[in-house]
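>> Question from a student workshop board

For tomorrow's exercise we were told to take the sequence and the ligand below, predict the bound structure, and bring the output to class. My setup keeps failing. Could a helper post the expected result so I can at least see what it should look like? The ligand is adenosine-5'-triphosphate.
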Amino acid sequence: MLEVIGLVKKYGKANAVNDITFSLQGGEVVGLLGPNGAGKSTTMKCIVGLLRKTSGEIYIGGIDHMQVGAKKLFSYIPETPSVYDLLTVKEHMQFIAQAYKVDNWQEKSEVLFETYDLTDKKDKLGRDLSKGMRQKVSICCALLPDPQILFFDEPMIGLDPKAIRNTKRIFKELKEQGKTILVSTHLIDSVESIADRIMIMKDGNIVGNDTLENLKIQMKENDSSLEDLFLELTKDE
Ligand SMILES: Nc1ncnc2c1ncn2[C@@H]1O[C@H](COP(=O)(O)OP(=O)(O)OP(=O)(O)O)[C@@H](O)[C@H]1O
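>> Workshop helper replied:
Here is what the output should look like for this input. Compare the format with yours to find the bug.
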């Protein structure tokens, strides 16, 4: 469903992403972990086409990621949600529904508003929303077109405990529906329960990429937690 081959992204002369290759099978949920500055957001932004890659190839559903056909397959929830100041919450959904030709968008939006406690906020303008509410609107907009693959960059940041719980539940449901998800996070325990595989980045490289099962075997052998393993793999030499 996603293939990243030899991705390099330089900012000026500095390599933020250093020739990485990985793939996600359909229905796989992969947690992308790594310390600050590891290159997680840069990787995601290159995949979704918000940043121009320096070199490498990226395919989504077998289609080059810059083609419209590839863009129809995914939604991206950015680290910093941006909403339209002068659209209400409901109008955001209408806008997405029209852009992606979503049927029954009003009913689908109501369900999402319920889940994210936005029902009484649906007539609020984007500019009047708190950071957490913006994040919730961004997640609702991403889920409305029912995409095959979802890229979440730090989805839990700014959410209240109830919304975090709901997002975890939605991850489980999306996984059950066979969706492919790449989620970058610092909250290791938030992916531990849903991820099929964990990918760990450091200094623009992938330093760990294994199934949870294999990681758990390693953890058992070393009597360590996922957090211990993460810290071990990303420690400075
Ligand atoms: N616009 C930019 N211009 C120059 N350098 C950048 C820019 N954005 C990111 N970088 C650098 O690229 C590297 C990777 O940054 P990136 O934001 O991808 O890391 P991250 O793993 O997402 O970090 P965090 O967990 O803090 O969000 C860092 O060294 C960062 O300083």
